[in-house]
Amino acid sequence: MPATLTRTVADSVTVHTYTAPEHGWRVNSHLIELPSQLILVDAQLTIGYAQEVRSIAARLGKPITRLYISHAHPDHFVGASVFDAPTYALASQRELINCSGDVRIERGYRYTPGHENAGEVHARPVDEVVEPGIEEIDGVRFEFLAPVEAETTEQLAIGLPAQQILLAQDVLYHRVHLFIGEHAFDTWEKAIDSLSTMPYDIVLPGHGGPGDRRLYASNREYLDVARTAYAAATGPTDLTRRLEAAYPSYGGKAMQGLQNFYLFPDG
């Protein structure tokens, strides 16, 4: 699958979503275009893909004033060094990136075909902490949320209440295999349930194209299938086979090596 760029327009705000190719885990970077500036959410798995996002921003002709990093998985923070804007993350995720970012990058590349010889890549430290709550930026209201124990221990999701847009990041995926490396099936479903009660009709996931409220049901279904597959699997190869058989058209297969590292630490 090649990289894609989609636009979500609502009430004078446009969100430009860059979805990386399969080699980049189909991860999203969102450029939120406000009247006078751009807010970037997540920075890609590789420097090259981050540079593509920077080129898109340059064509829009507005400065990136903030870069929010949703969580400490490498596909969301590796490309931060490409951007000059101050970076923000939740306190727990800032600590993880600042203390172990390079280890996370090395491990992610080691278990991703084609990245194992990427050369020397270092994590940019996160500058600032973002707290859950409401903030107005350039006349637009932002709601910062911190879902817990979903794909990872804690992550940042961002709502635009007036536009009814939710940047759910890795609480939700769209036609991409979920990263179940932390096998938090039950609590992840609770995080999905919590977001589903909020009044957001346009849902932008962390991986795959923009969607709507139907993503809540499709992600719950995937977690149920993955829970059963993991319980029955005899090892990493068998789990991969089961998931790909259940969802043959889904992207995100490049993530499965890292996922299996965590699920099957003994090989």
Short summary:
This protein is α/β, with parallel strands linked by helices and 267 residues long. Helices cover 33% and strands 25% of the residues. The protein contains 7 helices and 13 strands.
Helix and strand arrangement:
Blueprint: E1 4-10, E2 13-19, E3 28-33, E4 38-41, H1 47-60, E5 64-68, H2 74-77, E6 87-89, H3 91-110, E7 128-129, E8 133-137, E9 140-145, E10 157-160, E11 165-173, H4 185-196, E12 202-207, E13 211-212, H5 214-232, H6 236-246, H7 256-263
Parallel strand pairs: 4-5, 5-6, 6-7, 11-12
Antiparallel strand pairs: 1-2, 2-3, 3-4, 8-9, 9-10, 10-11, 12-13
Helix pairs in contact: 4-5, 5-6
Describe the model.
This protein is α/β, with parallel strands linked by helices and 267 residues long. It has a single domain (4-263), classed as 4-Layer Sandwich (Metallo-beta-lactamase, Chain A). Helix content is 33%, strand content 25%. It is built from seven helices and 13 strands. The strands form two sheets. A seven-stranded mixed β-sheet has the order 1-2-3-4-5-6-7. It has a six-stranded mixed β-sheet with strand order 8-9-10-11-12-13, with helices on one face. Strand 12 and strand 13 form a beta hairpin. It is globular and about 55 Å long. The chain starts with a strand and ends with a helix. The model has no long low-confidence stretch (mean pLDDT 97).
Key features of this structure:
single chain, 267 residues, alpha/beta, Metallo-beta-lactamase, Chain A, 6-stranded mixed beta sheet, 7 helices, globular
